[in-house]
Amino acid sequence: xxxxxxxxxxxxxxxxxxxxxxxxxxxxxxxxxxxxxxxxxxxxxxxxxxxxxxxxxxxxxxxxxxxxxxxxxxxxxxxxxxxxxxxxxxxxxxxxxxxxxxxxxxxxxxxxxxxxxxxxxxxxxxxxxxxxxxxxxxxxxxxxxxxxxxxxxxxxxxxxxxxxxxxxxxxxxxxxxxxxxxxxxxxxxxxxxxxxxxxxxxxxxxxxxxxxxxxxxxxxxxxxxxxxxxxxxxxxxxxxxxxxxxxxxxxxxxxxxxxxxxxxxxxxxxxxxxxxxxxxxxxxxxxxxxxxxxxxxxxxxxxxxxxxxxxxxxxxxxxxxxxxxxxxxxxxxxxxxxxxxxxxxxxxxxxxxxxxxxxxxxxxxxxxxxxxxxxxxxxxxxxxxxxxxxxxxxxxxxxxxxxxxxxxxxxxxxxxxxxxxxxxxxxxx
Length: 429
Ligand SMILES: Cc1ncc(COP(=O)(O)O)c(C=O)c1O
Description:
Aspartate Aminotransferase, domain 1; Aspartate Aminotransferase, domain 2; 7-stranded mixed beta sheet; 4-stranded mixed beta sheet; 16 strands; 39% helix
């Protein structure tokens, strides 16, 4: 590691200087905790297609892809053109605009549960509203989430995120007892906990593929089992498809698993790289947010945000979904590349690694302590996470390949088989 640190420092001298200035001004030098890594993160000056370019002119093949939001790659031509045209007209109205209607028409056609939609500017806000809505609709207070589940920084869901899932994630959070946590892909274990809280259970929020906690797909049986319990007990199923929405197919993953969620949250891809969060759901559920015919005590007050449904996010989202809809082979191509990455990484690892993921998302886990499978966040956390960090850092400093250290990789339409081969090679060298 020492060698890679000095290699990194030698090639990122300008980044070091700028980051020193950043550290004077920003806590830890960053504005999103996960963007920091030792000795300092490189500073990006531009990005194109699959590449990031830093201020020292180093080029990196990017697998972080804007927090996995850029399925079409950086600066995609048609999205850029649409944005340019919008910027010519202006970029902030603070009023109703047609771009929002156009994006919603696309989303509602592709996502059956999206009978009514509200936009915000982050996934965090979307899940915050989802929780409030579930509590309003059911009149109950408890929200269950998954051990390791990540739904953004909302205080409502900032619990049981990091191993061993027992300590508070932050000071300053109150009423933590209203969030309970259940084990992923373990239906018996989850139902045991859910039964205890059934009376006051407003809803369960789940990522169909656990993202931040290890790139782990849920089994259909697990999700359907939780759904059955939730619906039997007059609670709601909230599916957080902020990562998975429009990632594996044109639409959400839930219809392919025969699920019937009440509320779905979207983000990332549907904003095409601009700030977005989406909360959508069945008409009768979303009707609780209606401020026209509901008293204060009955309504769920969930519409706000200066920049909600701003014309630039709506435009880049619309252009991105249009591009995905018009190029039906996109998903086959990137899902195949993901299969190839998982197969090749798995084949070459000689049992040292377990590779998880689905479609164009993948993650390597360095085996430790006799772990033989990674189907939940506990197993992912008990793998050698430092080895993964070091491995990602080595690829940054030595191979010109960027994964945010410790995080899963996302393949975009701009990546090629050759890129994957190079990444596999770098993993083995
Ligand atoms: C599943 C999931 N939900 C919610 C969020 C929060 O979204 P944002 O970072 O836009 O607030 C994320 C962010 O990575 C996420 O992965």
